[in-house]
Amino acid sequence: MIRSLLRVVTASIAVLSASLSWAADPAPAPSVPTTLPQLQARLADILKEAHVPGVSVAIVRADGPEWMGGVGKADVATGRDVTGETLFRIGSTSKAFVSLSLLQLVEAGKVNLNDPVSRYLGDQWFQNPWEATDPTRVVDLLEHTTGWDDMHFREYAKQAPGMSLEEGLNYDHTSRVARWRPGTRMAYCNSGLAVAALIVEKVSGQRLEDYVREHLFAPIGMNTATYFEPDAALPVTTLYQEDGKTAFAYWHILLRPAGSINASARDMAAYLSFYLHRGDVGGHPVVSTGALDRMEVPTRTWAAQDGLTLGYGLSNYGSVEDGFVFHGHDGGVNGGLTQIAYLKDAGVGYFFSINAGNGAAFKQISAAIRGYVTHGLHKPTVPAPAVMPSFASDYAGWYRPDSPRSQNTYFVERLLGLTRVSVSQDALTLAGLTGPQLHYVPVEGRTFRRHDADAEEPVASLALVTPNGEGRFIASGLGGTLKQVSVWQVVASVGGLGWFAFSTVSTLLYGLGCLAGGLFGRRRPQDRTMRLWLLGAAVSFTGAVVILITGAADLLTHFGERSAWSMALCALTLIYAVATAGAVWEAFGGNHPRARGGVHAYARVASIGFLIALVYLAAYGVIGIRTWG
Prior knowledge:
2 domains, 16% strand, 20 helices, Beta-lactamase, alpha+beta
């Protein structure tokens, strides 16, 4: 549940680094492991190179588990090894058990996924301005189509041992407000699954954790899985920061149904087998095959309604990897990253979880295991491109992200996510401000599939949404929704960003030059005042960025609580506002007959750049931001 939040918060940093790494010569890809010893050796190499202590792994075929074990250390201090019984945090992979619980209640005739949530819980747990015409439905909670903001930092950071689900949901209502009509766009939201879990409790009369243990864990054979901190006598991994040495304290997640489960490789092997056998365990159906089929297909978004079947279903999503269509889910907590994926037609699946928050190692391990389980399998046939539909040309132009997961960081996403769409006779091309172009060819109706040398997709993953009263949109299978915008909006956005960047960089360089020059000569007081206000704006903004970068190692502790980090971030944004106001006043409102013309002209240009950013940041609530509030 933390993994994608970290991506959003560090988006601007990632874009800067990507622009450098993209141009570099790629390292040669390692050979695909074809035997289990080769895979184990490859995993050991990755762990060593990335300073990740250990990994828990389960690989399952239709005829049974192939490997339930691990590589490396479960605990660095004691030297304890990872085994098939070691419990790891599986993060957002936990969400599927809420969806499975509701599907069981649907099959029992006790719940209807299309019912309004208010039928079961009333409307005290969320706000939806469109409730009268477009109610928030149960299915919206599971497909992340409520339109709610994701949990706020203070919710993520809250340590909640022993807290009930209702108490957890009562801790902060402010994130659960629909920002657009439910059932239109997908935006990942952890609290939606917690509200769905409350429906399970109300309908079943059992605590969610007890219901899952009785109706899912036990029948499936997940004998050691638990939502709570395991007993000290059980083999539990320690979770570490990216350095693989600094341990995290156990995270008692506020909304446990969203990502709290601890499970072993043996537990997860049984879980994978449950999917591969389509809900049947030892001849006894836990849920029907139809229920699992429903889990794997989205229905609510505009894109789904326009025929896109690849995407986020009921806590289970499809994605194309190496030419294969996998289903499953990723997960992340402080110090732990998890992936479960399976090929239902090929009858194979895998699980792995690492005990350090190292995204690079996570990707390498995923590629190695995926390569091993698909070795020797035939990739799905790639269909020939269809004829480009006549309406496609209407979708050429500029687009802006329109379904932010976190509203607090949307001010970054809406700028860095600007995308140019061009349409030719053969292909649709998406080009962002940075990175490679992506090419898509038509499949059927309004759907398109990726058509690049390194990503030839066998199924559609993009849809040109039917125009509606809100505008024209393009949506991907995993939730990214782009809205068409006018050229002048793009020019204003890019121009404002460029002006601000020029003001910041030039002021910092100018300030360093003046500092050096001040050692050898006198400066006019009027010049000095102007430069100091400008420098104050540039330094305070730069300082806020540095605080975010350096504090990201322990994001929740540093910014989810009142701390030196969060207070410094708040203070620096306020200082930026004051310094910018001072710079504008000195440049335009002050009386400086003795100020040098060049200094005065530069002060006017730079202060406007800072003012543009101030207005923008203030509009998105960044000035004086209280991340702990």
